[in-house]
Amino acid sequence: MLGQKARWRQGGWQIAAGARFGWYLYRVQSVGAESRERSYAILDLRVERRLGKHAFVYAAAESEWNWSNQSLDEYSDWTAGAGMGMEF
Q: What is the pLDDT of residue 62?
């Protein structure tokens, strides 16, 4: 796996973005005459805003792609969410 994360903060704002890449080789499992393999890429982004000393709101999104020589392993998805939190 290879991954990298970057984060920026200023005032009450924080923005974080990341990328991860990986590859799997299944030595025991096979697809036809070749070994099963799978690779993936994941990108994510989170934006957070502080609302005083303890409260914050955020929005986050992540996109993932999977490729494989086994068709059931191939997919892509996108998820997003938002919320608020308290830290004490």
A: 98
Nearest to 10 by CA among 53, 37, 49, 59: 49
Three-state DSSP at 10 gives: strand
Q: Are 27 and 35 in contact, with CB atoms under 8 Å apart?
A: yes
d(CA 31, CA 67): 14
- What are the angstrom distances between the C-alpha of 56 and each of 8, 26, 30, 40? 16, 43, 48, 32
The residue written with tokens 């999977």 in the block is: 66
* Residue ranges of domains in the chain: 2-86
Listed as ranges, residues in the chain with pLDDT below 50 are none
Residue owning tokens 């990986």: 22
